[in-house]
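Predict the 3D structure for this chain.
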Amino acid sequence: MERLYQHFISSTGVITDSRKIEVGALFFALHGASFDGNDYAVQALEQGASAAVIDREDILHGNPQYAERLLLVDDTLQALQALAQEHRRRLAIPIIAIAGSNGKTTTKELVSRVLAEKFEVSTTRGNLNNHIGVPLTLLSMTADTEFGVVEMGASAQGEIALLCSIAEPNYGILTNIGLSHLEGFGGVEGIRKGKGELFDHLNENGGRAFVPEEDVVLCEMAKARKDMAVEYYSRTIGEGFRSNLTGDYNRYNIAAAVEIGRYFEVADERIAEAILSFTPDNNRSQAVKTERNSLVVDCYNANPSSMEVALDNIATMEAEHKVLILGDMLELGEWSEEAHKTILRKADTIAERIILVGGEFAKAYNASEGLQSDYTLYPTTAEAVVALNKEPISDSLVLLKGSRGIRLEKLITEL
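Done. Predicted structure below.
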């Protein structure tokens, strides 16, 4: 590890994509479903990488001219994670982990901006929140970093525990316990257990959690961890702070940022400036005005919980005509049909026109009775694009909400 760490600190940073090699970077030859990074290790060195971490002996033996710059390990992913853990320990800075079913990225962005009013903050880029993204986030932190904000995503039990073992957060917040990745977690209790691994880590290591007092489930989970310090706060504390976020549900994310800012003694006026400076992008709760319609674009991802709050938000908005464009909620397994039917019953009370995209909503629609709205079904987003191009929607408030794999953002140009 010491040899690897010395290569790391003398490099310009870690890169895992051979197409983005920078001079002086440390290249990790990771494995993917259809590629082996080892095959590109020599190419990375030729393009200026300072060293390449590999786990195939034939690459080392076949390129003796690079013997000093080819670092052979048993497993490149495990080496990346171990290096990140070592770097985190040497930095010895406070780190707050943000996990939960919905709102992680928005909360991470708000918390990072608030803390940056007082500290030099390093944070997760985009949503690099998995077993590769979290190590890369940690390895992007420098000696100047005073505070780390790390988003942690998971689709199965054990994943948050792994990320906590690498990042060793001192503080944590669970945004909520919703119905995301039901299939991977093995049901509702599996989600609660899997997301609760963050609280388990804090409980075992003398950490502190920030918990909204109105959330019965999170409070129950917090109280079960007797050795975890807890800061309870009200979700109303975010009221009065202006933001560019749409949707009543975002007040929960704002409240978390306000609570954390106040805990770390950031002045309220600085908190307000930080929150107002954030404008959502990447199809997350975006309000978009086109020549013909007003859009709420929230199609980065979807699960039953986030779909319900998106519908609740549209229900409170005033508009003469409302159109819902809903894409399948993926990774629900055996719970899929019932979850989609539940969403249809709710959507049916909100808009006179509903467009469904994907096979899961089609199955649920065909199995439902008593629906009153005007429904149009498309197997794919591409087919919906063609149809909306021929028969455009105008003068309407339109919600686009669906899972990432459905790619509903392709419809924006037709609206």
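Residues 76-91 form the longest helix (16 residues).
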